[in-house]
Amino acid sequence: MSDLTALRTIQSRAPLARPRIAVMLGSGWGDLTDHIQDAVCVPYSELKGFPKATVAGHTGMLWLGQIGANQVAVMSGRKHGYETGAIDGMKTPLRLLKRLGCAVLVQTNAAGSLRPDMPALSLMVLTDHINVRQRSPLVGEGGAERFVSMVDAYDPALRAQASHIALQRGITLHQGVYAWAFGPQFETPAEIRMFRLLGADAVGMSTVPETILARHAGMRVLALSLITNMGAGLSGEQLSHARTLSQAQSGSGVACGLLADIIRQIGLPPQDPTP
Q1: Residue 2: pLDDT band with limits 50, 70, 90
Q2: Pairing of strands 220-230, 123-131
Q3: Alpha-carbon span 252 to 195, nearest angstrom
Q4: Which domains does the chain have, with CATH numbers?
Q5: What pLDDT, on a 0 to 100 scale, did the predictor assign at position 246?
Q6: Of 7, 36, 145, 228, which residue is least crowded by CB atoms under 10 Å?
Q7: What is the structure's pLDDT at 243?
Q8: How far apart, in whole angstroms, are the C-alpha atoms of residue 163 and residue 101?
Q9: Comparison of pLDDT for 252 and 105, the residue scoring more
Q10: How far is 206 from 152, CA to CA, in rounded Å?
Q11: CB within 8 A of 176, min separation 6: which ones?
Q12: Cα distance between residue 246 and residue 226, in whole Å
């Protein structure tokens, strides 16, 4: 019932909110909230079933408003598997936003590059992912719906639209496969070599569980990575979370401007009149 309690809280705080697009903000993407018009901000702490923010760069706020003509629900922060060991921490928020009317989930993250042609401050749209740990947030679910197809989990039409908008803006938007490493420790050079052999182009500690949950809920998914570093052993830099946040902030302006343009141009069918 936690999702219904949170739903009532949102409806009391933002009675006119009918979001169609949910957005998950990772490190470096927080300035997207500057692009939200008529924003209503609700702390996660007031929403039963939403996670506590424990990671620097994740403020733990839900923003409701508009970007262009599209109503959005922007989640500033997610719960990572490495925080508690559970990987279903975003189940309630995503199901609630689906109930409110969100048909699309736009995900963002900070990631390490496995490709020399994709250095720090590059942007990448996800074409697919590798669930390295083969863990699922759907464990314990019942019914045939739990057997979710992950073919085209990252919607081809949304990816094409994002690439077209980046081209129009003169921004290089790489395409690639994202490997989900559990963390919180960074990967070893040997693990990075393994991920490259598996076909990964970038690596990070989020996104995959939320994509699985969104696909289970019937939402289309678009995901973007802001590259903050090269993978371990691919450069001489010392990896740290502080370094990740610093690099993410350096690339934030370009990344968030592109993301806002993409969200403005996402076309959606008419919404049901009531959530």
Answers
A1: low
A2: antiparallel
A3: 26
A4: 2-265 (3.40.50.1580)
A5: 83
A6: 145
A7: 78
A8: 26
A9: 105
A10: 18
A11: 115, 118, 124, 125, 126, 127, 200, 201, 202, 225
A12: 12
Tokens of 109: 């993250």
Per the model's pLDDT, the better-predicted residue between 161 and 241 turns out to be: 161
Specify the pLDDT at position 269. Answer: 72
30's enclosing H/E stretch is none
Q: Which two tokens stand for residue 33?
A: 């909230």
User: Among the residues of the chain, which ranges form H helices?
Assistant: 2-13, 81-84, 91-100, 156-169, 189-198, 208-216, 241-265
Amino acid (1-letter code) at residue 95? R
Residue where the block lists tokens 């990987």? 87
Q: Could you give the 3-state DSSP secondary structure of residue 26?
A: coil
Q: What average pLDDT score do residues 111-131 get?
A: 97
In this structure, the chain runs to a length of 275
